[in-house]
Amino acid sequence: MIICAGNNETFPFATPIGIGLCESASNLTRLLLMQPPEFLLFIGSAGTYGKHDIFDIVESKAACQIELSYLQKKSYTPLQNNLIVSDENVSRETPVCALSSKEKPSIVNSSNYISTDIQLAEKLNRLGIGLENMEFYSVMLVAQNFGIPCGGIFVITNRCDEHAHTDFLKNHERAMYTLVKYLQTKVPNLEAFNT
């Protein structure tokens, strides 16, 4: 099953699940209770913390949820802010720093907020976290709870800096076109997927 956030990122072959951590978790859970698939593929846009270029396509099976205030030592969480990896070779709950450089996947960080501070973005990049998407962590967490393999394919629309929103708007249309073209080469019978 192919899923997407929705709003301005909808596709005729993908089911929208909502924007942000809460909407996507709630709607995806409801969807999986009614119709559990064999595999989930989340598609959408992402910002880069510095490792990727605009319009790059990044595939990932790894997500985390680290707020910027945590990096500034201005908050803490009683929750594990662990990495979720949908891969049989790596533990599903491995702390980011525990992965060796050989094993590091493209890690997607999720938050209900978009990062606009380049220094904090670079800090995340140094931790091995390459990009930011609002929904992917909750998608991975729900998939893990249902025992469903999951992955994501993202197109980079912006850098996580002070121009993030302006660049997202400027690049979004071309990015969605680039993502669809990439998916057409990777997913057999893409148009057969229908919501």
Q: Can you characterise this structure?
A:
This protein is of the alpha/beta class. It has a single domain (2-187), classed as Nucleoside phosphorylase domain (Rossmann fold), CATH 3.40.50. The protein contains five helices and nine strands; from the N terminus they run E-E-H-E-E-E-H-E-E-H-E-H-E-H. It has helices spanning 20-34, 68-71, 118-126, 136-146, 164-186, and strands spanning 2-4, 15-16, 40-48, 57-60, 62-64, 84-85, 107-109, 129-132, 150-159. Strands 1, 2, 3, 4, 5, 6, 7, 8 and 9 form a nine-stranded mixed sheet that branches. Helix 1 (20-34) runs parallel beside helix 4. The protein is globular, with a radius of gyration of 16 Å. Mean pLDDT is 87; it is low at 88-103.
> DSSP helix count?
5
The number of strands is: 9
State the CATH topology.
Rossmann fold
CATH architecture term: 3-Layer(aba) Sandwich
Write down the secondary-structure element order.
EEHEEEHEEHEHEH
CATH class: Alpha Beta
- Average pLDDT over all residues: 87
Major beta sheet summary:
9 strands, mixed
Rg estimate, integer Å = 16 Å
> How many domains would you count in the coordinates?
1
| Span of the ends, CA to CA | 9 Å
Q: Mind telling me the CATH superfamily name?
A: Nucleoside phosphorylase domain
Low-confidence stretches: 88-103
Percentage of residues in helical conformation:
25-40%
Q: Helix/strand-derived class?
A: alpha/beta
Question: Per DSSP, what share of the residues sits in E-state strands of 2 or more residues?
Answer: 15-25%
Give the overall shape, derived from the CA principal axes: globular
